[in-house]
Batch of 3 targets.
Target 1
Amino acid sequence: MMRETPRGTEIALSDHGRLKWQRVILDQPLTSRRWDGRWRVIIFDIPDKRKLARDAFRYSLKQLGCRQLQESVWITPHDCAKQVLALRELYGIGPFVRLIEAAELEGDKQLKTVFNLV
């Protein structure tokens, strides 16, 4: 559905349309032409009552090429903001997931090797 607003044209997606949009976002590869020197750290604390969503989120992060740093801490050198936002919405876990960009990460030499950055 489309409607005109003072800010421009807004499009409201149906549930089916939103799922298709999320699929398009998630199918985009997490690669950059050149690493910008920033780490993207995804942290989450998803309650046990949402275990299926938590497991699906972990699986999706792995599929995107993120690596597990600690139990609920994942990392990638690639810009993944769109994908993480889509996953949060898809699984209904927005309040439990945070994305951090860091210019420095202690002991990142091994990670640079894992992600072929050296």
Target 2
Amino acid sequence: MEVFHFLPEGPDRTVSLAAMYSRHPPADERAEARLTRAFDFLLDVIEHEDYVMCEQTQRSFRCGAQRDLVFGRNEPGLIHYHESIEAVLDGAGSRRQPVAHS
């Protein structure tokens, strides 16, 4: 399981921390190496794809070219997270109608 923490330091800067957890310790050095490679791969994708896209999206918001963002079907965790926050902000635990995602 991977856990990510995002710590805003200002309007244009956020520090992210990542950790990987396993139910059981690796059985041997080979298993540990496999987990390390998998985590390194994940971090590489996040750094060189996801964070780059986040920066581009933020620039679009800042210049006014884009006002809304819709998560695709491949991001159910993020969809649930944002819908939960919106429900709390809407008050009294009311939930907005789910948005169709493509």
Target 3
Amino acid sequence: MRRLWEFEGRWRITRKIDDRAAGRAGWFEGTVLFTAEAAGLRYHEAGELAMDGAPVMAASRDYLWREDDAGIAVYFEDGRFFHRIGPRADHWCDPDQYDVSYDFTDWPDWRTIWAVQGPRKDYLMESLYFRIAP
């Protein structure tokens, strides 16, 4: 299992999106910056998002990553628990189910695959991370 401090720094991210509910595909390209905070790391993702049939737009998101005796926990920016990093994790956000797998086999390159399903959602999202600078 990876340690929190190993993520600090700047990463390039590419993401493929298969929105099966809408019948369209998309991509995201940008950077992720992990910066130290008192309680762990802040994850800041910023880049460009394009979905079939829509103009390219700027997109960003932030999370808080914290390490404890059980490993690394991910929190939403407002401090609510999201999930714990592991080979597999999940998050129920009524009425939608979010399932994720983490793959660190090619460290320092790594990837996540999210499968999201709900009454109006059905998409698969694969993100690849490549270290730019520690």
